Amino acid sequence: MTPAAKAPLFWECPSCGYLSKDPAFADAKTPCPECRASGVTKRRFPPDTQRLLDDRIRGYYRDGESQITVILGAALLEALLEDILDRIMAAHGADIAIRGTLLDTVRAIGQRLSRLFPDLTGVEFEDAAAELGYRDFPKRWRKVRQIRNAFIHDTPYRDVEGALDQTTALEVMVLLDQAYTLFVSLNNKFVADGRRHRGEAPHVSLHGGTAEDDAPKGPVEP
Ligand SMILES: [Zn+2]
Question: In angstroms, what is the span from residue 16 Cα to ligand 1's centroid?
Answer without folding.
Answer: 4
